[in-house]
Design the sequence.
């Protein structure tokens, strides 16, 4: 059985068990849950930053045979009992508005995952590799822009960069937008997760930005981008800068608008962006 959109074979799926699920955002904002899945006898090696696919049980709307969606591994490691592995996801509960009826519908996979209880079984595929590649030259600059659950691939990516190159000398800048301070997820949540993973000097290389009064995480990200526009613009002109975008698709559009202002026109920005894409210095992991 093949998913027409993703060419995923349902027969390749593995069974995982929900170990825990907890909401990490306040009730007043979008629901994001930290969900830990356990695999008892994994056939593959899973690494944070890779993606897994989740297949939801049918029946699916419009007669689709499968519904398969990707989720980034925020963490992957041995379970406490040493007998299995645990895969940690950050999942935002999605809804969409049907343009014809105007009604709001729950996204299938995200609601399935957010509703799952400890002990429930989930069909997963993968691991699937991340589109983010570490440049071989440690003097390269890394410009990362993300919102919401987009922090998961960056967290893993940053860790891999510094594990592979303790002597990284290029500038590393992470611009991360959230609607409220509390929504900063792993940048600022109770676990202070980044501080666990990076030493002080590495942590100082990261700039996180969030504004509490702004409309959404994309706006917050852009206010940070605007506040550092000159530095970003200088970085974008540098031949060794790589750009990474992660999170909601609309941030890519909003970032385009912001850069078009700096470039003087949309056409000029598109020319620069195209050269980054052509030189494989532009990577996106964006979704609805
Ligand atoms: C590589 C990768 C990694 C990802 N990592 C994460 C992650 O770590 N965390 C996370 O929360 N998400 C992540 N995502 C997004 C995730 O895969 C899903 O896209 C998201 O959870 C929504 O899936 P869903 O099944 O809940 O919603 P769906 O049911 O697929 O609906 C989502 C969107 O589909 C459209 N849509 C579907 N049906 C209709 C319809 N009838 N009418 C109109 N529009 C419709 C809408 O635009 C809607 O916004 C990732 C995506 C990719 C590609």
Sequence:
């Amino acid at each position: 059985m093949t998913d027409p959109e993703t060419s995923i074979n349902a027969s390749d799926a593995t069974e995982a068990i929900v170990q825990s699920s907890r909401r990490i955002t306040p009730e007043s904002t979008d629901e994001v849950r930290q969900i830990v899945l356990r695999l008892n006898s994994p056939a593959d090696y899973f690494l944070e930053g890779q993606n897994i696919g989740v297949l939801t049980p049918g029946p699916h709307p419009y007669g689709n045979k499968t519904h398969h969606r990707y989720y980034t591994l925020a963490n992957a490691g041995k379970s406490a009992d040493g007998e299995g592995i645990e895969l940690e996801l950050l999942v935002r509960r999605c809804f969409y508005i049907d343009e014809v009826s105007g009604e709001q519908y729950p996204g299938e996979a995200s609601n399935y995952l957010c509703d799952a209880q400890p002990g429930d079984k989930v069909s997963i595929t993968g691991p699937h590799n991340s589109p983010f590649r570490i440049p071989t030259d440690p003097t390269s600059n890394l410009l990362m822009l993300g919102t919401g659950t987009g922090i998961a691939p960056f967290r893993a990516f940053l860790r891999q960069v510094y594990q592979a190159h303790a002597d990284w000398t290029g500038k590393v800048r992470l611009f991360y937008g959230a609607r409220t301070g509390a929504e900063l997820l792993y940048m600022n949540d109770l676990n202070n997760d980044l501080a666990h993973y990076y030493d002080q000097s590495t942590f100082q290389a990261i700039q996180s930005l969030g504004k509490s009064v702004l409309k959404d995480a994309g706006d917050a990200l852009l206010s940070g981008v605007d506040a550092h526009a000159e530095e970003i613009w200088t970085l974008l002109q540098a031949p060794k800068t790589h750009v990474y975008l992660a999170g909601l698709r609309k941030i890519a559009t909003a970032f385009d608008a912001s850069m078009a202002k700096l470039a003087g026109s949309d056409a000029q920005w598109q020319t620069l962006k195209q050269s980054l894409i052509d030189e494989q210095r532009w990577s996106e992991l964006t979704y609805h």
The longest strand covers residues 68-78. The radius of gyration is 19 Å.
